[in-house]
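Example for tutorial group B:
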C-alpha cells in the first residue's frame, strides 16, 4: 500500500491539516464527501514503484491511441448531424419543404435554444452520471432524431427535431470536456481539445454530400433525405460501439494494466481539479455562479460562436451564391474543416508549449478571421477567388474557441463546480449559435452584410474579453503569492490533488492564463 500524504483542507479562511494516515484509512481522516473518487481508488489499490518518465510517456501514448479516436469521431459525427442542414439546402431542403422568409434561419437558431433549456438537467446529469455513459446515451438519442428528419416534411416538425437535438447537445459537449479533463494534465489538454473538438464535421459532411450528389434523380427519396438517413444510421452504430468501449476515467479504462491505471490516476494530482465525485454540492454551485472568470468565458463563448452559428447554417449557401453547383459547393465546404482543424492544432500546440500565454495565443489567432471577414466584406462579389480566400480565412475563428475552452478545464476544481462550469460554457456556445443565424437576413442575400459586420465586431469583443480574463487571473495569482507564498508542488502519491475542493478554497491553486 502506498502512503497517502496528508492534504490541507481549506474550511473557509482556516486551513485545517489532515493527519497523515495509511492509504486504506484516508477516508476516515477526511469527510467521505470531500474525497474525489480518485483518492478512494488510490487508497484501496496495491502500491507500485514510482512512475518513471518513460512509463508516463507510454501511458500517455496508450491513452491517446485509445481515447482520441473514440472522442474525435463522437464529436465529429455528432456535429455532422447538426451542421448538415446547410448541405441539405443545396439539394432542395428549403424548396421541397416550402420554407419562406426567416424560417430557415430559425431552424439554425432553434437548436441552440434547445441547448439553453437543456442546461438544468445536463448540469445535474454530468455530475451524477459517468461522462462516458452519458455521452453514449445522448449520442444514440441524437442519432435517432437525425434519422427522423427523412420522413418529416413540415417546418414545425423540423423545428421540434432541431430543438431536441439541441437539448441533447447540452449533455454531449460537457461530457467530452469532462473526459479530457479526467485523462490529461493541464498542459496536455489544449492539443487534445484541438483534436477532439476538430472541425472534421465539414470534411465528413462534404464527403457525405458528394455521395448523395451521385444518387440518380430517379431514386425513390429526395436527396436530402438520403443524407440524413445515412449520417444518422452511421452514428447510431457508432454510439452503440462507444457504450461498450469508452471508459469514464483512467480507473475503469480496460486498455490500461492495473499498474498503468494506478499511475494514470496519480499523475493527475498536480491538476488539483480531481477526476470524479458523484455528490452534488450546493456550495460549489453558488461558487461557480459567482466566479467572474467563468462568466468571462461564458460571454466569450457567446461572442465567438455568433460567427459559428452563421457559418454553420449559411457557409455552403454563401459558396453556392458565388455561382457554384450543389455538388461543387458541397466539395468546396470540405476545406472548412481542414483549415479550422489545422489552425486549432497549431495554436493549441503553441498554447500548450507556452507557459501562461493561452489568452495571448487565442488573441493572436483572432487576427486571422478578422482578415478573412474584412476580405469578404471589402471585395466585390465578382472577385470569386478573393471571396473564397476570405471565406476560408473566416473559419480560423475555431482555433481561439478551442484554446479558450481549455481555460475552464485548467482553472476549475471541485466536481460539482466543474459540472456547472462546463454546462455554462456549453450554454454560452448555444447562445452564440442561436444568435448567429439571425444576423444573416434573407433580404440581404447574397452578400449578407449584417452577418459579416457582426462577425468583425464579435472578434474584437473576444479580444477584450480574453484580455480581461488574463488581467483578473493574473492579479488573483499575485494576491495568493503575496498571502500564501509560492504554491507547493503536489507530489505523486498525495491525496491533496484529489480532495473534492474548489479552486478558490485551495491556497496552492494558481490559475492558468
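The residue assignment follows.
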Amino acid at each position: 500500500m502506498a502512503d497517502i500524504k496528508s492534504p490541507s483542507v481549506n474550511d473557509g479562511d482556516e486551513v485545517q491539516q489532515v493527519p497523515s494516515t495509511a492509504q486504506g484509512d484516508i477516508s476516515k481522516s477526511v469527510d467521505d464527501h470531500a474525497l474525489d473518487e480518485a483518492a478512494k481508488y488510490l487508497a484501496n489499490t496495491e502500491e507500485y514503484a514510482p512512475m518513471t518518465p518513460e512509463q508516463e510517456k507510454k501511458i500517455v501514448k496508450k491513452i491517446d491511441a485509445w481515447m482520441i479516436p473514440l472522442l474525435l469521431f463522437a464529436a465529429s459525427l455528432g456535429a455532422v448531424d447538426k451542421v448538415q442542414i446547410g448541405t441539405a439546402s443545396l439539394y432542395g431542403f428549403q424548396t421541397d419543404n416550402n420554407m419562406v422568409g426567416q424560417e430557415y434561419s430559425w431552424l439554425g437558431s432553434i437548436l441552440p435554444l434547445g441547448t439553453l433549456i437543456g442546461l438544468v438537467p445536463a448540469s445535474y446529469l454530468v455530475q451524477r452520471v459517468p461522462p462516458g455513459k452519458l455521452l453514449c446515451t445522448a449520442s444514440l438519442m441524437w442519432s435517432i432524431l437525425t434519422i427522423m428528419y427523412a420522413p418529416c416534411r413540415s417546418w414545425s416538425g423540423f423545428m421540434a427535431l432541431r430543438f431536441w437535438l439541441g437539448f441533447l447537445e447540452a449533455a454531449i459537449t460537457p461530457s467530452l470536456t469532462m473526459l479530457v479533463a479526467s485523462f490529461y494534465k493541464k498542459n496536455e489538454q489544449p492539443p487534445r481539445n484541438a483534436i477532439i473538438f476538430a472541425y472534421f464535421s465539414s470534411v465528413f459532411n462534404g464527403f457525405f454530400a458528394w455521395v448523395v450528389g451521385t444518387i440518380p434523380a430517379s431514386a425513390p427519396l429526395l436527396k436530402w433525405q438520403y443524407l440524413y438517413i445515412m449520417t444518422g444510421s452511421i452514428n447510431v452504430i457508432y454510439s452503440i460501439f462507444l457504450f461498450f468501449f469508452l471508459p469514464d476515467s483512467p480507473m475503469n479504462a480496460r486498455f490500461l494494466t492495473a499498474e498503468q491505471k494506478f499511475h494514470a490516476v496519480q499523475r493527475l494530482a498536480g491538476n488539483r481539479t480531481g477526476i470524479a465525485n458523484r455528490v452534488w454540492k450546493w456550495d460549489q454551485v453558488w461558487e461557480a455562479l459567482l466566479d467572474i472568470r467563468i462568466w468571462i468565458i461564458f460571454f466569450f463563448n457567446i461572442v465567438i460562436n455568433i460567427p459559428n452559428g452563421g457559418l454553420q447554417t449559411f457557409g455552403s449557401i454563401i459558396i453556392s451564391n458565388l455561382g457554384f453547383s450543389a455538388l461543387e459547393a458541397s466539395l468546396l465546404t470540405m476545406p472548412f474543416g481542414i483549415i479550422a482543424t489545422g489552425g486549432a492544432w497549431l495554436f493549441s500546440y503553441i498554447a500548450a508549449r507556452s507557459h501562461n500565454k493561452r489568452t495571448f495565443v487565442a488573441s493572436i489567432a483572432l487576427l486571422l478571421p478578422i482578415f478573412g471577414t474584412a476580405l469578404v466584406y471589402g471585395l466585390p462579389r465578382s472577385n470569386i477567388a478573393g471571396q473564397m480566400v476570405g471565406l476560408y480565412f473566416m473559419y480560423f475563428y475555431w482555433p481561439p474557441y478551442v484554446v479558450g475552452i481549455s481555460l475552464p478545464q485548467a482553472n476549475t476544481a471541485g466536481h460539482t463546480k466543474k459540472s456547472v462550469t462546463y454546462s455554462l460554457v456549453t450554454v454560452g456556445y448555444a447562445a452564440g449559435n442561436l444568435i448567429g443565424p439571425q444576423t444573416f437576413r434573407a433580404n440581404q442575400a447574397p452578400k449578407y452584410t449584417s452577418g459579416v459586420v457582426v462577425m468583425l465586431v464579435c472578434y474584437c469583443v473576444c479580444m477584450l474579453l480574453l484580455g480581461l480574463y488574463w488581467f483578473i487571473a493574473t492579479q488573483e495569482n499575485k494576491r495568493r503569492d503575496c498571502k500564501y507564498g509560492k504554491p507547493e508542488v503536489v507530489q505523486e502519491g498525495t491525496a491533496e490533488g484529489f480532495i473534492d475542493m474548489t479552486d478558490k478554497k485551495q491556497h496552492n491553486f494558481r490559475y492558468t492564463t
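The radius of gyration is 23 Å. Compare this with the pattern of hydrophobic and polar residues in the output above.
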